[in-house]
Target: HTH-type transcriptional regulator, tetR family
Amino acid sequence: MVDAHARRTELAEAVWRIVVRDGLEQASVRNVAREAGLSMGSLRHYFTTQSELLGFALRLVGERIEERIRAVDTTGDQRAVVRSMIDEMLPLDRPRRGECEVWLAFTARAVVEPTMAGLRKEIDERLTDAFAAMIRRLADAGALRPGLDQKVEAERLYALVDGVILHALLRPGRTSNATAKATVGAHLDQIAPAAADER
Amino acid sequence: MVDAHARRTELAEAVWRIVVRDGLEQASVRNVAREAGLSMGSLRHYFTTQSELLGFALRLVGERIEERIRAVDTTGDQRAVVRSMIDEMLPLDRPRRGECEVWLAFTARAVVEPTMAGLRKEIDERLTDAFAAMIRRLADAGALRPGLDQKVEAERLYALVDGVILHALLRPGRTSNATAKATVGAHLDQIAPAAADER
Model:
């Protein structure tokens, strides 16, 4: 008996390969079936439309990232904890770069494609919540700079991280990884200065 | 006699319409000729490859933005000047939204398409310079918060603005414009606090 979850994961991975190699437009049900070595009939057992297929592939990216974030050790300096959580989102190695490429291909298409509005909104809300939780974590630890608006800071950190991901994707290589980490680091130092830096 | 520059601009606009409506993959020389109501032969008088066509269309987006930035009144409070310059990049109305959509479609494709590496690098360098000039403007006016690294701050502002553009594209509407402006505003207030806020 084939494990349905394992099969769906294999299919999502076939979608990722096509998106990264050929662009999102090529991730049709037919092409994904071919990439995964399945008949159209077998694939339709798991997904009936392209939207379902893309939605599943993208949610799986989100779940992997969320799983890694949940695995971050949350003891100790909360600035370091938030930094580690954000590192799990950045394209610092090949697997994370693949996730970010799928996310960007989806995002660029979702901006102009009305049928993707629901999924786009769902992902935006999950990420908004994730960044709000990071800011709250800093605030609860007394590490957030006094006078900052938590809602604005959550949105600002979220926008900054998306911009850093975009730049890291555009400039592959080790220098780019260092820039990505330095940019996020400078931001966290500003919104949550270490005690010795406070004035 | 047809004005070559005007004709090239018309063609770039045909590219933009296709990219926004159908995705970057559809902006082939053939489809652009059809969209512009020209024969393939006439179009080849101006552009011989799809890369040339895309490059020209994207550079024209950049030139329009740079032109508007140059037109910003640079007298008075330099924080307000920088804010006005950044407003010219944000998708706050229909024309600017179209520019940003073209930029995003290109960016998403350029990340995985090696033939776009040259153009990608050129645009990244121009934008890096533009943001470095804004930070220098704040520093020269004595408005930049002491102790900040200008190079890091230029990259941080650039990443933040790209993230804000991405979010504004993903969440169309007036609320989203207000969020975009508030996020950039909060960032500028942090890196260049008004005199009364300095401590």
In short: Chain A touches chain B at residues 20-21, 23-26, 101, 104-105, 107-112, 120, 124, 149, 152-153, 155-156, 158-164, 166-167, 169-171, 179, 182-183, 186-187, 190-191, 199 (CB under 8 Å). Chain A has a mean pLDDT of 90. The radius of gyration of chain A is 19 Å.
